[in-house]
């Protein structure tokens, strides 16, 4: 160090990462470990993006994602921690969450024995489906533990996919052309179908009739794959990576919103921030949506990316409530997460299916003394929120607020009288704070492995990471997607090989 400036050898390559989502931070940490110079630019004052935690009136609310899975011994979080030599601030959850459906409480137990007993009580006629689901989930999760660069972009990727084709994978291959609904027996109850639809909507962004069978079966197995509570809120996963990056010589700059990616001679050579600062780089990784990247390229959009944003429909948005409640109103030892389906006969999302997350009593960092922090969320289409005049927008926001509070009353009757704070968030809110185009969240619905989006952008040194890149959803998914991009940049077969 001389005068506060780090001098790098001329041969050191520089990577510029746009955004501190878990995908961007994972890529930054892995490149830094490989000897690259790393610069991360974040528009907000805290890391994590849609998996961040923000501060408001003494509360620390999870902005979007509230549940983290993939911490089992061979899970993506565990493998990343082993690679970097860090420890996540997490504690396991059991049950992972409780589903409130048609007067029943279905516990998503973490242990397989307890879950098999639970599903037998509620879905006795569906056992053949569950056995198939477990078998296919095991295949899909084992694939995720190997180097499986999907969709393949190079000849080496094709070779790696072929090497991952074990007999079990080959036997499950026909399921790549089917949906989860195709696995259901005729004897399956309507309640089982609604239950599956609700689980897949939060984990695959679509329902059983459309969810790819292999991906969907793995998603249904998420509660058995190391679901954890993050001490201090979900954003502490991202903060753990930021701390590691800075401790190892990387740069993370907050309040640096990127306004433009500079393209010269078919390469992305720099970014320009809102303040006019210019950061040059050899490689740029954008932890943004394809639509947001399209805007950042400011007319220099490759044809493939232009077609992509024109033909892919917008993904889901979220309506959220950030609620502060008197702790005494919550039963002792209540599970941390709940999912409520208000009307099993109506379409899910739009306030009819609601996910509720509660800060634990033993985490005093999340709320003022005597209070608890809750995040409620439901899937919502983004377009209607942008078509309203101010008065209609406020009416719609209030209507959705009441729907979500109705779901909260299902879990905790009478709790409305104990509310201390109720702060709504719409897709327009997400667009403002996360800079995601129209406030889309969650990534693309996993309907077909053949339509999965890879990290390519049409420029050889500009890559996408985050939930738009397969496998997409969840912090576990974006870790895998980012590791795949870094492995490609480093010319290595894999970076997060499972040890078990």
TrEMBL record:
Task: Give the SUPFAM superfamilies listed for this entry.
Answer: FAD/NAD(P)-binding domain
Q: Return the InterPro entries for the record.
A: Amino_oxidase, CrtISO-like, FAD/NAD-bd_sf
Identify the residues that the record assigns to the Amine oxidase domain, covering every copy.
22-489
Write out the transmembrane intervals: none
What would be one Pfam family of this protein? Amino_oxidase
What Gene3D superfamilies does the record point to? FAD/NAD(P)-binding domain (3.50.50.60)
Q: Output this protein's name.
A: NAD(P)/FAD-dependent oxidoreductase
Organism annotation: Thermanaerothrix solaris
Q: Lineage in the entry?
A: Bacteria, Bacillati, Chloroflexota, Anaerolineae, Anaerolineales
